[in-house]
Amino acid sequence: xxxxxxxxxxxxxxxxxxxxxxxxxxxxxxxxxxxxxxxxxxxxxxxxxxxxxxxxxxxxxxxxxxxxxxxxxxxxxxxxxxxxxxxxxxxxxxxxxxxxxxxxxxxxxxxxxxxxx
Length: 117
Known about the structure:
Blueprint: H1 2-11, H2 17-68, H3 74-78, E1 92-97, E2 104-109
Antiparallel strand pairs: 1-2
């Protein structure tokens, strides 16, 4: 019985150093791919947040115009009695213009957003 166990143990072999190095190299390549993929996801989420806030501010401006026959500042949109926004926008700025003032508005992105809203 003991001789059979010794014979079985002698026939077993483990991984060679080359096989282990190949596995480690493959895992390194996969880890590198994942790191660069995650960085791209973060950029996409920032762009989406900027676009979403611009869209929300545009909707609030139009609702304010219906009530007051003029467009409002960020302060007008966030205070009572209007309270169309929960807080002042942080990713876009609102500029009023036109004659009379408040008959038009424009939005501009603030860093880290880029492009036009």
